[in-house]
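note to self: the first set is below, dont mix up w the second
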Amino acid sequence: MFEADYGGPHDGALAFNIIHHLSPEAARKLFSRIGASLRPGAPLCVLDLYDRPAEKRPDSGSFLGLFFHLTSGADTYSTEECRSGWPPVGSAGKDADVAAASRLALLRAERVG
């Protein structure tokens, strides 16, 4: 993932259920590498389970957060934490709540020029 040649320019990329296994630094590095392989205007979509907002009660997603921690030492990120690694990619696009009950969401950004 960090040594492979991604080629490009590609019309889009999807990071599916991987971000929660990466440190913030590794996620930023991955977003930067993906961004460099996209054509201008191409989307990067990140489908993952995100941390619940502080005002919400714990739900079934909390068990998955524990699972991530026990299996890879990782944790769920908030959508804001995920987006903080996107500057190399570009602007935020439209997001979609895929399964609100489990906090699964699809975040989207587009590569800028």
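second set (the one i keep forgetting abt)
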Amino acid sequence: MILLEVMLGTLLITMSGIALIALIAQTVQTVRSGRETERQTQSAAAALERATQLGDAELAMRVGRRRVGAWDIEVSVPAATLYAIDVHDTLTGATVLGTMVYRMRPELNGQ
């Protein structure tokens, strides 16, 4: 009877160890995935930051979708003085980041 209890105890400890190893492996994978997503988001943010620094004339020339580095940058004009800038993943086409910028046009300002 004691031998059976020892075998069951060993089995339970082994199963717990396997479950712990699986949990640790999944945690490591989740951390890696999170770091990769953060790196991609930072890269997209840098591309968006560069696009938001463009003036009215430069944005007007870039209306449409263009490949810039590892990203597709889409510039659209929803209103006369507003530009919508979206950063898309080139593989899936999903929007990663986006913003709208206001640019005063000289002809609308009376200058």
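remember for set 2: The chain has one domain: 2-109.
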